[in-house]
Amino acid sequence: MDLIDNIIATPLENKDYLSHVSCPVTAAHEKSIPVIHITIDFRRNYPEVPRMNSFWASSRRPRLSLDEIAVSRKLISAFGSSDLEALRGSMGIRNLVMAGVATNGVVLSTVRETMDKDHGITVLEDLCMDSDEEVHRVLNSKGFPVSGAVTK
């Protein structure tokens, strides 16, 4: 979730992050497991964003393979203002595997909403990143296990 330039570049100095994300994506493709990319998106010229916020101006989205799906949202949770729930239901997906930036943002909000919706959850701890390593550690060791599985 949110694997777009501006979000990844801000909290991370780990330049290998995207190459690490590609491993489970490749494994999912090999097992015919759907891959859904979640990004935050705004209208052209960003009318939803304050004019002084240049953060989003140069963001580039990930390139998707033909069998991958992109879902855009405007709120913090991946379900917020998106069609993810309809897509999940129509594809018969019962369990969501999550990775993304930032752990205390989109990952946390999506984990909680997924739990509220009574869907299965697996968080890929090593593929979630946050600018605050302590927040990342606490969420993965104490917060997320209440909602579902956490794996490295």
Task: Give an overview in words.
This is Isochorismatase hydrolase. Residues 13-137 form the Isochorismatase-like domain. InterPro entries: Isochorismatase-like_dom, Isochorismatase-like_hydrls, Isochorismatase-like_sf. The structure is a single chain. The protein has helices at residues 5-9, 17-30, 84-90, 103-116, 133-143; strands at residues 35-40, 68-73, 95-101, 120-129, 149-151. It is built from 5 helices and 5 strands, in the order ααββαβαβαβ. The protein is globular, with a radius of gyration of 15 Å. Helices cover 34% and strands 21% of the residues. It has one domain: 3-Layer(aba) Sandwich (Rossmann fold). With 152 residues, the chain is of the alpha/beta class. The strands form 2 sheets. The chain has a 3-stranded parallel beta sheet with strand order 3-4-5. Strands 1-2 form a two-stranded parallel sheet. Helix 5 (133-143) links the parallel strand 4 and strand 5 (149-151). Mean pLDDT is 81; it is low at 56-60.
